[in-house]
Amino acid sequence: MAAARAKVAGILEKAAADERISETEAVALLKSRDLIAVGRVAGGLRRRRAPGVEASFVVDRNINFTNVCIAGCRFCAFHRKPGSAEGYLLSQEEIFRKIEQTLALGGTGIMMQGGLHPKLDINYYCDLFAAIKSRFDIYIHSLSPPEIYHIAKISGITVDEAISRLKAAGLDSLPGGGAEILADGVRARISPGKADGDAWLGVMRSAHKAGLRGTATMMFGSIETCADRAVHMGRIRELQDETGGFTAFIPWTFQDSHTQMEGQKSSSGIDYLMTVAVSRIFLDNVRNIQASWVTQGLKVAQISLSFGANDMGSTMIEENVVAAAGVSYRVGKDELVNAIRAAGLVPVQRDNAYNFIDFP
Hints:
Layout: H1 2-16, H2 23-32, H3 35-49, E1 54-58, E2 60-63, H4 92-104, E3 109-112, H5 122-135, E4 139-140, H6 145-155, H7 159-169, H8 184-190, H9 197-209, E5 214-220, H10 226-243, E6 246-253, H11 269-282, E7 288-289, H12 293-296, H13 298-304, E8 311-314, H14 333-342, E9 346-350, E10 356-358
């Protein structure tokens, strides 16, 4: 026990000196459960890597334009198989109405994500994005890497060409959804019908090289080990060293209700805070670490601002995917502002590119 504590203390001393820690050392921190010591170092690193007294958030909307998906991920309660009576595809007019509502509420962006629809090819998305941009002054932060990989595949084009055409049509950046855990042993068990880890990273690499930045996510607390989490963060850090294209890292916890994995114990608040803190320590080349009030609630998200996070994510005027798994926290702009102030920080509204635009 004493040797383990000494090992953790040595890793934290190394991290506090801005030395890069290894995946093995990240695993030791995750397993240590020495939350206060790890959190203290993570908080200090946050103040160095994202300097200032601000904690940011964005006002935008998730538009889940379809729930039809052929991936069949075991952790997802949102998707429906092609032909299901519960499947839907929003019309352009319905999407436009949601954008109008978003702008009326002070929103600056939309995040459009759906399923891997078997019939929607590159032309559908290019036409949709072009139509949006012709009507609205709004930022399009949309299509996760598995979606783009799928679109390219069914359209008979390369990922590079798909990204080039989507960018020309109006796509501004990519959300980091569909990453789950970038360890293929885990992915094969929870999302066998989705692009593997190499493909996810390949899409992001292509997007970054085309000038489209994006976020990176990690869904944890299902069947993965601490070593799998470290592998995931290691792959994100390696690509960030190469491209510098990730704007933020967003760890969030698996929710089991109404999924094929129902009954699988998920992460506790303590495990969540530890993972946030270790991600701040490990990802020395990613400026922003985002809290997840959507899965953890506002109080835990607020605490995470002392454990390495510097961003509270989105007000999420609309959210359907996590809600389908039985978690339906709702937080408005005023509540985010008050929570940030109560944490002793200055709230600032940003856009999806992480530029500060307003101090409410």
